[in-house]
Amino acid sequence: DSGVTQTPKHLITATGQRVTLRCSPRSGDLSVYWYQQSLDQGLQFLIQYYNGEERAKGNILERFSAQQFPDLHSELNLSSLELGDSALYFCASSPSGQGEETQYFGPGTRLLVL
Amino acid sequence: GIQVEQSPPDLILQEGANSTLRCNFSDSVNNLQWFHQNPWGQLINLFYIPSGTKQNGRLSATTVATERYSLLYISSSQTTDSGVYFCAVDRPETGANNLFFGTGTRLTVIP
Questions:
Q1: Does position B99 have pLDDT exceeding 80, yes or no?
Q2: Number of helices followed by number of strands (H, E) in chain B
Q3: Does B6 lie at the interface with A, CB-CB under 8 angstroms?
Q4: With 70 as the cut, is the pLDDT of residue B111 above it?
Q5: 44-73 in chain B: CB under 8 A from chain A
Q6: With contact defined as beta carbons under 8 Å apart, do B15 and B60 qualify?
Q7: What pLDDT was estimated at residue B98?
Q8: Which of A37, A52, A87, B76 is the most exposed place for a label (fewest CB within 10 A)?
């Protein structure tokens, strides 16, 4: 158990819909990362937050948005869903979000868009 | 961006055999992690190893940062070692520590 929690574990929805994925980081970690794992793109970085502020952006679509709340949990919002958004979405956390530290990954949310 | 290449892409072993997985990366890094993704999809941290050698039970890893590669050794493999092994590195110039993943090595251990 990494200490990072994600809900829900599984999500099935239809094209055009909107969903929200939730992540709670390890106790004491200030930085949260979101990653997407799909069959065609592999594991790729989406976005990073540190203490409520966006720190880095990766290959995140404009239809996707995220935020980190004062209690440090984070939500990833996916809207106007397409079939290709079906993937495993991971959240990770680390203490400061900089340089030489380990990222710990949550169990993931498996999203299926029908 | 930084390139991460893993080899071999697939590996089939008899239970009890040893194996070496390789990760090459194209630039200097602050962070290098090895992960095991089990058949249920869970990503499990194995090592944080931007340089040097570490051991944990039957697993060990070595990173030679100056030559831009890392090796993961699995000894006396067990069926529970099956899954995909990923190497991931950061891009130090960004200062942000987000990870770039290789395409993985799929390991199958047969009894």
A1: yes
A2: 0, 11
A3: no
A4: yes
A5: 44-45, 48, 50
A6: no
A7: 84
A8: B76
Q: How many CA atoms lie within 13 A of A52 on its CB side?
A: 3
Look at A102 and B33 and tell me if their CB atoms are within 8 Å. Answer: yes
Selecting from A45, A100, A108 the residue whose C-beta is nearest the C-beta of B99 gives: A45
Lowest pLDDT segment from A9-23, B29-43, B62-76: B29-43
Overall average pLDDT of the B59-65 stretch? 97
Residue count of chain A, please give it.
114
Rounded to 5 degrees, φ, ψ at B42 are -70, 135
Q: Are B88 and B99 in contact (CB under 8 A)?
A: yes
The Cα-based distances of A81 to A6, A19, A32, A74, B17 in angstroms read 20, 8, 23, 20, 45
Q: Is B14 a residue whose pLDDT tops 70?
A: yes
In angstroms, the CA B73 to CA A14 distance is: 43
- In chain A, residues with a C-beta closer than 8 Å to the C-beta of B31 are 99-103
Is B48 in contact with A2 (Cβ distance < 8 A)? Answer: no
* Residue spans of chain A under pLDDT 70: 99
> Least CA distance to A55: which residue of chain B?
B96
